[in-house]
Amino acid sequence: MNAVQTYRYLAPSTLTQRSLALQTSGGPTPNPRFFTGFLTTGQAAAVGLLAVAEVARTRYHRPVTPASLDPVVTGSRDRLRFESFSGCCGVYARLDALPEGLDGDVAEHGTTNVDVNNPLREALARVSGLDPLHLSVGPDDLTVSTLDGAVVEKKVPLPVRWLRGFAEVQVLAARFEPRAELPATEAAAFLRRLPRGGDRSVLWVVPAGRSLRLTARPVAGAVCLAGAGRLVALQPMLRFAKTLRVYGPTVAPGSGPAPSVWELDTGALRLSLTLSPEPYRGFSGEGAVLAALAGDDVVDDANLISALLSWDPTIDTDRLAEQAGIDADRVRGALAQLGTAGRVGYDVADAAYFHRVMPYDAGRAERDNPRLVGARALLDAGAVQRDGTAATVRSGDQVYRVRQLADGGLTCTCPWWAKHRGQRGPCRHALATRMLITEQVEEPA
User: Fold this and answer.
1) Tens digit of each residue's pLDDT (9 = 90 or more) over 186-216
2) Residue 270 belongs to a domain
3) Where are the beta strands (DSSP E) in 316-397?
4) Model pTM score
5) Of 159, 184, 218, which one is at a domain's C-terminal end?
6) What is the CATH number of the domain that holds 93?
7) Torsions phi, psi of 123, nearest 5?
8) SS3 for 298?
């Protein structure tokens, strides 16, 4: 299933001699150009673009035929971001071309799919040494010739799973902290020691001097490494990198599998891979966004915040809160709502959100999150009865008990909770209870 927004190209992307032309699908004016200039480290940039495209065409869980070949590119004042999800939606890749990596001006803020076809992949693979690489985001004619001849207009739909993945990843990544930093030489040695291929084990890593040590169980300060073979896309970029940084949420002994970010930094470019908590789990089904979407004001807040977004490289939540006259938590809820349309991402290196230019549909949040719809239906039907720190939820002929833990979390007696134990977001019964608690706290005395 694909999203309603589609992207139309006037021609495929091409690389001829010393110029790379990435075709865009449009913006405020038909097919505008929002960046024209050079990538200052041509070979490294070519390798990074190929890595993002390789993730887009790979299914790490149950590999079958190649998936999409159309990463998303965003121009944002002083940088470019190239993003993709794997075919199984369990790996999110991003290449950031930073100000030091660009010799040109980002003329407009824009987002589009990038057509990375096979001729372009082959051409990027031939960029070597000090070859300059000129990047033009947006066409200047109706027909562009590849090495194999002329190709004309192409439509590319944006997969719904990508939109859902964008929404989930930005909520999850906002909880991450830097956990380790390795010099490139140590990073290369560590990556060489990892299991290869279709490994599906869930490992953990902890800092050990200048490197990382593998462990089978989580401990304080550890980072989850699920399906170590999914880091293979980092390998070609290692020779250009200065450091490898690892990010993850706070874990403790007994913690379940968790997502993580692995980022190579060259100084001019950053290539990062975000891994889902387990190799078989795609980000599109994680449910991390549900709690943020449950507020009564979230749609109105999202409309307000959307009007205030600029095309700065990062989103300042405190500034938005001041401008909108709402608190920072409501801003984050609004950003989560906008994230359901792919309009918001999160950069762990900057510890800040960033803006993509995509159509916003307020109804997508509910269409893509049936548990949210179910929770609101339970509330509207008066099916949630709270008593102290617990609640009784009637769903059809079934009755479930939701209990609030000391840390504020909720548990439920339903089959969904028994299966996932909160690892894939709340069940609809717990979500409805959370919404009721919030309503009662906000009611005037």
Assistant:
1) 999 999 988 876 667 899 999 998 899 999 8
2) no
3) 344-347, 352-355, 384-387, 390-395
4) 0.85
5) 159
6) 3.10.150
7) -70, -40
8) helix
